[in-house]
């Protein structure tokens, strides 16, 4: 900020420092908290993770009984504290600088600036404001350059920053600059003339003709043009529509705008800040009806839209400012680049896109160029799999849009807390949160918590704070998860905040309790009063009330995959290559509005190559549901219910064609989708590329050995997925007669059923290894639940499954299997976390990395984003040994990939449990016998080869 001299220094010399004033008033009730900020975190460019550490900077937050402020960023802790105290005093209306003689300076500067703006010299300069003066001089008989004070207020940065120094309220209400401009002009008698009621300013004496000529000449021969703008009527009943502004190079465009608004002249028009992209000239123009807007005493915090009829809710929502009366949204004005009037046609589509851009998921959709199809993902898995704007950038854009302070992102390094002895405030804080995150119950050594957090993969946590322009804390997010990379922690924390804000914006009527509980789920705290105050303008409008996603997706059964699908046809041969969670799918698609009965179609959106990650909901659930059922090369015809009208209009080039269609009852949205390719998740690619035979094959072979040794007649595969183990077993001659698979993923089970069905039916005709199999069943159910049909099997396998459950569930599974199902042998495999360093060193995983990133670490902490944990050998040992001891099993450890004797052990670690005693034989029928919790998805029998319906 241009403060002209440093008030802080002046204050220190003459009166008390801000901090000592705060101390006098609040004593020990004032609590300062210093936060260290790594410079790299601040400067980090989107898409570029800087891991080199810059010098330490500091920010200070100050909590007083009634208010909370956060300072700017400073090199010294002391400066940050003084700044926080200064801000607090400012907010409390205590002015420590009142006796400061330099106060006079900004006034003089403002008067001087206004004088300069009406000088001969300024008229021919390249400044957006001089364009207005030149244009005004084109009016018949105007030789004075009569322009509205509002134009000066909004276009001259110096005027507005000086006004802010004079009166900090200007920060909250930019229209307050106008009275200051008028006041400054009033001091320039003999130079400029003002009209207090009209709010215009002009020269006292005409510009000399030669000055006018030379300034105007350059603009070439007279031209006139029609510019398309958007008319937003004040009354919500009237529709928003395109309006033509007939502008000519020999007139003043603001007069045209004024006429269009039914006003006599330009000085009655107020202009907003640019809306949308900071670089755009899109602004709202509206009548200066409300004199109170220009009163320093007006309270921006209360919502006049509720009390006064003249408030334009749609325009206010769009601009984030109070707008009164009808408004025009136009992209027109003078720039720094040329003396010509710059302009651009706006369409209804641009209006709807602006509206969309107010909402986090809307910003994401726009950044993907897929308004109907994309959706803000529920998870940031890896940088490599993310498409579109990054969460952090969306959050920054959101805050700017809504006139909030820049979000404060504070990545905390856990490793630092570990290495250094405790002491500073910051370190203690880090350790606290680490303990919390790992549920350390016995008051154990604080460092253990941090150590565990570090072992579980992460070294960074990031906190996010969002403050209003007046530095009220609105939202605070302290995620429990930790990440290896600082930038990942930043993106994930930002995403949490975005998801929550998005849920709120999609349903502004959401009861506060819901909002609270969703916030809790996302580790967010929000401060009701300041939150609702910050978004007061948004509440006056209910435009984005999506019928299909009212409560944020996590609460919402309506957005279950596939909801809203009317029909889905998949055509083309099954290539066997199908997407799974974590894989990247590339599709081509087109989305069309269709009225079948009238044979009408309008293309809304299409793409030849659209890549997205499966499983993170980065596309609408209907499209994801379709794609997960396809194989590469197949096409799908998906017919679904209409999305919200605002989306359609934002996607459509020509809203004129769409509106009549949309009002028809049998209007549907139809997608044609072709699955072009699938890139498997990193884990699968690594397992195939780095191990020969692939790791998955080695696991199957390992299981096979045990099957052979034990002469097992029947087998259960716990968490069988798409049946890769069961399918492979059919290629070998074994003693098996009955095979069973259980999984909770219905989709995978269907896939497994298809493969096993065709293989078993073909095989039983020929003389092939699997001839011995007489029965095969697939159950849909959770392996942590009980089903008596799984009791007493010879062998159980559970390959690469437990890490997909929460740790307590993994324990529960162990108890259920060993105490109820009691297989003679149980084989459990899971990734060895310690082996990850080797995988990360491989070329394959570094392809995933940002090329600018110098670190060796992988962008996600685990091999697969669906993993809830990955254990070290010690952790796995602990799990298996405890379970074995408790349930009378012996256990042996082994693995596949790498070697058990060489650090860091096998790539996949395996525990083989063997039952020591036969289970108690009890002839009386157990209650459990009756318990059938699982659903049969598919059943095959060698005698009748029948199968139950899927
Ligand atoms: N065993 C298979 C699949 C491993 S992927 C293979 O080696 O190829 C992990 C599988 O565990 C997924 O199919 C997932 O649906 C399943 N899973 C996760 N939690 C489960 C639970 N509680 N009950 C049953 N299956 C579960
Ligand atoms: Mg796994």
From TrEMBL:
InterPro entries assigned to the protein according to its UniProt record, in alphabetical order: dsRBD_dom, DSRM_2, Hen1, HEN1_dsRBD2, Hen1_Lam_C, Methyltransf_12, PPIase_dom_sf, SAM-dependent_MTases_sf
Keywords recorded for this protein, A-Z: Magnesium, Metal-binding, Methyltransferase, RNA-binding, RNA-mediated gene silencing, S-adenosyl-L-methionine, Transferase
E.C. designation(s): 2.1.1.386
All copies of domain DRBM, residue ranges: 18-93
Pfam families hit by this protein: dsRBD2, DSRM_2, Hen1_Lam_C, Hen1_LCD, Methyltransf_12
Region (Disordered) location: 844-863
Organism superkingdom: Eukaryota
GO terms under biological process: RNA methylation; siRNA processing
Catalysed reactions, as listed in the record: small RNA 3'-end nucleotide + S-adenosyl-L-methionine = small RNA 3'-end 2'-O-methylnucleotide + S-adenosyl-L-homocysteine + H(+)
CC per GO annotation: cytoplasm; nucleus
Cofactor list: Mg(2+)
GO function term, MF aspect, one: peptidyl-prolyl cis-trans isomerase activity
Family assignment from sequence similarity: Belongs to the methyltransferase superfamily. HEN1 family.
Name of this chain's protein: Small RNA 2'-O-methyltransferase
Organism: Morus notabilis
């Amino acid at each position: 900020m241009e403060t002209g001299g440093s008030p802080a220094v002046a204050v220190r010399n003459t009166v008390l420092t801000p901090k000592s004033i705060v101390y006098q008033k609040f004593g020990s009730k004032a609590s300062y908290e210093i936060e260290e900020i790594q410079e790299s975190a601040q400067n980090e460019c989107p898409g570029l993770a800087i891991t080199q550490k810059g010098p330490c900077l500091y920010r200070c937050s100050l909590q007083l009984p009634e208010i909370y402020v956060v300072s700017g960023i400073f090199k010294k802790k002391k400066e940050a504290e003084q700044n926080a105290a200064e801000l607090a005093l400012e907010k409390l209306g205590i002015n420590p600088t009142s006796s400061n003689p330099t106060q006079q300076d900004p006034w003089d500067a403002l008067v001087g600036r206004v004088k300069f703006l009406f000088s001969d010299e300024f008229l021919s300069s390249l400044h957006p404001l001089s364009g207005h003066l030149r244009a005004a001089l084109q009016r018949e008989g105007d030789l004075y350059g009569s322009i509205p004070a509002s134009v000066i207020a909004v276009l001259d940065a110096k005027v507005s920053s000086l006004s802010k120094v004079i009166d900090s309220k200007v920060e909250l209400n930019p229209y307050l600059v106008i009275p200051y401009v008028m006041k400054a002009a009033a001091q320039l008698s003999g130079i400029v003339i003002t009209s207090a009621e009209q709010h215009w300013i002009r020269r006292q004496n005409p510009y000399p003709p030669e000055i006018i000529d030379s300034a105007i000449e350059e603009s070439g021969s007279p031209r006139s043009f029609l510019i398309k703008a958007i008319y937003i009527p004040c009354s919500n009943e009237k529709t928003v529509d395109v309006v033509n502004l007939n502008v000519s190079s020999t007139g003043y465009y603001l007069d045209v705008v004024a006429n269009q608004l039914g006003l006599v002249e330009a000085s009655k028009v107020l202009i907003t800040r640019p809306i949308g992209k900071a670089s755009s000239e899109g602004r709202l123009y509206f009548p200066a009806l409300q004199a109170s807007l220009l009163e320093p005493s007006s309270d921006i915090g209360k919502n006049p839209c509720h009390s006064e009829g003249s408030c334009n809710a749609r325009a206010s929502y769009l601009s984030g400012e109070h707008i009164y009366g009808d408004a025009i949204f136009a992209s027109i004005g003078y720039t720094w680049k040329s003396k010509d009037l710059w302009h651009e046609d706006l369409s209804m589509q641009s209006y709807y896109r602006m509206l969309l851009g107010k909402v986090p998921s809307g910003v994401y959709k726009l950044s993907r160029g897929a308004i109907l199809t994309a959706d803000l993902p529920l998870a940031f898995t890896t940088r490599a799999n993310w498409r579109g704007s990054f969460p952090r950038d969306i959050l920054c854009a959101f805050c700017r849009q809504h006139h909030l302070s820049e979000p404060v992102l504070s990545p905390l390094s856990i490793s630092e807390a570990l290495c250094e002895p405790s002491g500073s405030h910051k370190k203690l804080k880090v350790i606290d949160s680490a303990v919390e995150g790992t549920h350390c119950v016995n008051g154990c050594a604080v460092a253990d918590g941090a150590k565990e957090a570090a072992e579980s993969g992460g070294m960074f946590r990031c906190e996010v704070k969002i403050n209003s322009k007046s530095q009220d804390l609105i939202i605070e997010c302290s995620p429990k998860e930790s990440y290896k990379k600082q930038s990942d922690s930043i993106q994930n924390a930002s995403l949490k905040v975005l998801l929550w804000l998005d849920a709120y914006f999609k349903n502004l009527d959401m009861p506060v309790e819901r909002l609270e509980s969703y916030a809790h789920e996302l580790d967010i705290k929000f401060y009701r009063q300041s939150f609702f105050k910050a978004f007061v303008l948004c509440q006056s409008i209910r435009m984005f009330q999506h019928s299909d996603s009212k409560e944020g997706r996590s609460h919402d059964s309506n957005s279950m995959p596939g909801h809203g699908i009317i029909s889905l046809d998949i055509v083309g041969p099954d290539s066997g290559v199908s997407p799974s969670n974590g894989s990247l799918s590339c599709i081509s698609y087109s989305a069309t509005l269709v009225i079948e009965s009238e044979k009408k179609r309008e293309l809304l959106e299409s793409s030849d190559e659209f890549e997205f990650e499966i499983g993170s909901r980065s596309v609408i659930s209907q499209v994801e549901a379709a794609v997960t059922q396809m194989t590469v090369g197949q096409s799908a015809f998906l017919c679904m219910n209409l999305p919200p009208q605002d989306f359609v209009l934002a996607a459509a080039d020509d809203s004129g064609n769409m509106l009549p269609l949309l009002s028809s009852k049998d209007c549907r949205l139809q997608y044609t989708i072709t699955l072009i390719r699938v890139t498997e998740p990193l884990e699968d690619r690594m397992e195939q590329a780095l191990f020969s035979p692939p790791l998955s094959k080695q696991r199957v072979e390992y299981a096979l050995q045990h099957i052979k040794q034990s002469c097992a007649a029947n087998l259960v595969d716990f968490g069988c997925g798409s049946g890769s183990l069961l399918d492979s077993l059919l290629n070998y001659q074994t003693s098996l007669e009955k095979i069973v698979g259980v999984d909770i993923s219905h989709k995978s089970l269907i896939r497994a059923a298809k493969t096993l069905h065709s293989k078993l039916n073909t095989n039983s005709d020929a003389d092939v290894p699997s001839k011995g199999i007489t029965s095969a069943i697939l159950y849909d159910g959770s392996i942590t639940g009980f089903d008596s049909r799984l009791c007493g099997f010879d062998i159980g396998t559970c390959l690469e499954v437990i890490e997909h459950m929460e740790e307590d569930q993994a324990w529960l599974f162990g108890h259920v299997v060993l105490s109820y199902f009691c297989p003679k042998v149980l084989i459990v495999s899971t990734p060895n976390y310690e082996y990850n360093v080797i995988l990360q060193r491989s070329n394959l995983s570094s392809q995933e990395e940002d090329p600018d990133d110098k670190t060796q670490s992988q962008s996600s902490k685990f091999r697969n984003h669906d993993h809830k944990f990955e254990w070290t050998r010690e952790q796995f040992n602990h799990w298996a040994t405890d379970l074995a001891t408790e349930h009378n099993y012996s256990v042996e450890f082994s693995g596949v990939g790498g070697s058990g004797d060489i650090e860091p052990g096998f790539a996949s670690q395996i525990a083989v449990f063997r039952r020591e005693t036969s289970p108690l034989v009890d002839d009386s029928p157990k209650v459990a016998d009756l318990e059938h919790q699982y659903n049969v998805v598919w059943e095959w029998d060698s005698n009748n080869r029948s199968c139950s319906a899927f």
